[in-house]
Write a structure and sequence with these properties.
The chain has about 260 residues and is mostly helical. It has helices at about 15-35, 35-60, 65-95, 100-105, 110-140, 145-175, 185-195, 210-215, 215-230, 235-260; strands at about 5-10, 10-15. It contains ten helices and two strands. It is a multi-pass membrane protein.
Amino acid sequence: MTTAELTKEPGVLRVPPRLQWSALSERNIRAMLREGDLILVFSAPLVFYLCFYIPLRKSMEAAGIDYAQYLLPLLAVYGMFFTSMFAGDRAAREVAGGMATRLRSMPVRPWIPVAARMSSNLLRAVTALAGALVIGTIFGFRFHGVGAALVFVAVVLAFGAALVICTDALGTVTRNTQISSTVLFGPQLLLIMTSTGLVAAEGFPGWIQPFVRNQPVSQLTDALRGLADGRFTSELGVAAIWIVALLIVGTALAVRAEGHRP
């Protein structure tokens, strides 16, 4: 930081928003590294993969399905859900620990703390996706097409950003540091377990199959499965709509929550 980058007024030293964001981002990332978040988000997809791949592989492959290829998209989505639980917890800590109150007393714009937390959350999301791809590749997952693979990564991270911004707002509003294990865990688990990410919709009872086929996690995993095979399917457009809607709602809620924090 140079003197030229600071705006001086009588009795006030104003720091440009870019430097405020940089300083808060660095603080969040240091805390994340110190607390071992990256190890947790990298290893979580590995545990999830083994829990479902080992018991279901033989039955799925007997039906002619390459289960390593089939399961990986859900693994990537799970990594984003896991990251979002960290986001809600960290945002709640900021408020409960008094950091949000201190920032409110300073000339810091409401969106800067949100953007700074998003920086560390993005690093968590990239690490979770890397963990998913590493374990999937070990068991036989492969991309078929460079362009489609890049879109795959972009879609996963965009979904992660949408989830994170929503849970960040929830954590800021509730100030509940246990938010990830209460409000968030149940709905996320329900969407994962009742999706086509684990088994095809035909494997569910007939009365729930319409929900299984059309719920957002199923649309997203089907789109990612197509991208992994080098195909751009119709589900990709539906998944994009879900992601954009979540991003718009989450961004509005997060900035509003930060602006009205106690």
